[in-house]
Amino acid sequence: MNKEDFITELIKAVPKGDEDAFRQLYDITHKRVFNYLYRLVNEQQMAEDILMETFTEVWKSAKKFRNESAGFTWMIGIARNRAMNTLRSRKTRGQSIDDHMEYPPEQVQNCTEAETSFILEQALNCLPSIHREVLDLIFLQGMTYEDVSRITRVPLNTVKSRVFYAKEKLKNTFVSMGIAKDDLL
Amino acid sequence: MTFSEAHFESMRELIPLYVKGLLPASRRADIENAAEKDARLKLEIEHWRKIHGAYEVIGERIPHPSPAAYPRIAAVIREQHGTGFFGRFAASRKIPLAFIAVQFLVIIALGIYIIQTRAEYRTLSVPQNIINGPVKIHIVFRENATEAEIRNLLLQVHARIISGPSRSGLYLIEIPSGEDADKRLGILQNAVIVEIAEKSY
Q1: pLDDT value for A20
Q2: Euclidean distance between CA atoms A85 and A8, whole angstroms
Q3: Which chain A residues touch B42 with a CB distance below 8 Å?
Q4: Residue of A nearest to B83 (CA)
Q5: Which pLDDT score, from 0 to 100, does residue A53 have?
Q6: In chain B, pLDDT over 90 holds for what percent of residues?
Q7: In 10 A of CB A133, how many CB atoms?
Q8: Which of A91, A166, B111, B112 is the most buried if burial means most Cβ atoms within 10 Å?
C-alpha cells in the first residue's frame, strides 16, 4: 500500500470514531496541508487557524468521503474551501485577497546563474493567484492535472492552459524585476 | 528534427508532471525520447526543472505549524462532537433518525392496538349476561294470603321463589327478563295479596 492509499484508509477509519487513525492522518498530512494553506494566505497564524478548521471538518465529514478522488486530494479540497471562505471574509472587511496572495517583487539587477532559483522564487510569488495555485499544487503537493482540476473545480483543459500561461507570466514578471525576458526561461 | 505542433503540444503539457516525477515509466520514456529529437522539448524540460528547483527552495522556507495545533484540534473535536458513544450519537444522522423511526413505529402499533381493543372495553357495572338474566324481586305477601293464592299469582307471572320467607315475611323471587318483566312486576305490585314488590339489585 502506498502513502496515498494509506491516507485514504485512515480517512475511512475516522467515521468509526478512531482517534488514533485521525492522529496518524494528522501526523502524515498536516505539513503538506499547511504548506498549501501558507502559500494561499501567506500568513502563519491564519494558515494555522485554517489548518485547524480543515482537520475539524475532516473529522466531521469523513463519513461523506466517497473515494471518488484520493483521500489527500479530498482533504486539500476542504482546505481550499476553508481558505477561500476566510479570504473572502477578510476581503469584505476591507482587505483584498490579493493582499495575501501576492508578494512584493524585488528588483534584481545583474543576475548570476547562482541566483536563478532565488529570482524564480520571487517571480513565482508574484504570479496571479490562479496561476500560482496550479503550480503550487503540482510542485509542492505532487498533484496531477486531474487532481488539480478536482480541487480547483475547473475543467482539465483550463488547468493545462493555466500551467502554460503561468510560465508565460513568469517571463513577464522577470521584465518587471529588471531581467531580460528570456534570460532565465 | 522537430515534431508537428500538435505532437509537440501534447508532449509539452506533460513536462511539468515529468519533471515532478508524476508520470508512469512508459510516459517518462516517451518524453525523454521526444526530447532527444526535438530541441524545443529539451529546452522546456530545462525551464521546468528550474521552476521545480525554485519550488524546492520555496517548500523548505515554509515555516512549520505550531506543535500546539493538534491539541487544539483535538479539543475542538471533543467539545463540538465528542468522541464517545454520545458524541457519535450527536454527530451521526442515522442513529437519531433510527431512534425517531422506532418511536414512530411504537406509536403506530399502540394506535392499532387501541383501535382493535376499543370494542372490548368494559365498565365496572354488572356484566351484560347478568343484566339480561332473570329479574329478581323482593316481595312481601299480606298476612291473610293463602298458599294457593300465592302459588297462582307466581304461576301467572312465571315467577319462582329463590329464597324466603324471612322472619319479616320477605321472599326473593325471580321472573324471566325481557319486555314483559315490567308488566309482570306491575301485576305483582297490583295484586291484592301483595304488600310490597320491588326489584332487587
Answers
A1: 92
A2: 25
A3: none
A4: A17
A5: 95
A6: 43
A7: 21
A8: A166
Could you give the CA distance from residue A164 to residue B140 in angstroms, rounded to a whole number? 124
Q: For A43-92, what is each residue's pLDDT tens digit?
A: 999 999 999 999 999 999 999 998 888 999 999 999 999 999 998 887 65
Find out whether A178 and A159 touch, Cβ atoms under 8 Å: no
What is the distance between the alpha carbons of residues B134 and B179, in angstroms, rounded to a whole number? 12
Q: Which of B22, B50, B64, B73 is best to mutate for the A interface (most A CBs within 10 A)?
A: B73
- What's this model's pTM, rounded to 2 decimal places? 0.63
8-state DSSP, A113: G
Cα–Cα distance between A26 and A98 in angstroms, integer? 29
C-beta of residue A110 within 8 angstroms of C-beta of residue A142: no
A167 interfaces chain B, CB cutoff of 8 Å: yes
Paired residues of B196 in beta bridges: B140
Cβ within 8 Å of B, A 35-54: 35, 38-39, 44, 47-48, 51-52
Of all residues in chain B, the one with the smallest CA distance to A14 is B83
- Among the partner-chain residues B13, B58, B65, the one whose CB lies closest to the CB of A34 is B65
What residues of chain B lie within 8 A of the CB of A163, using their CB? 13, 16
Say whether A139 and B62 touch across the interface (CB within 8 A).
no
Supply the DSSP string of A50-75, one letter for each residue.
HHHHHHHHHHHHGGG--SSS-HHHHH
Q: Which of A92, A106, A102 is nearest to A130 (CA)?
A: A102
- Reported residue count of chain A is 185
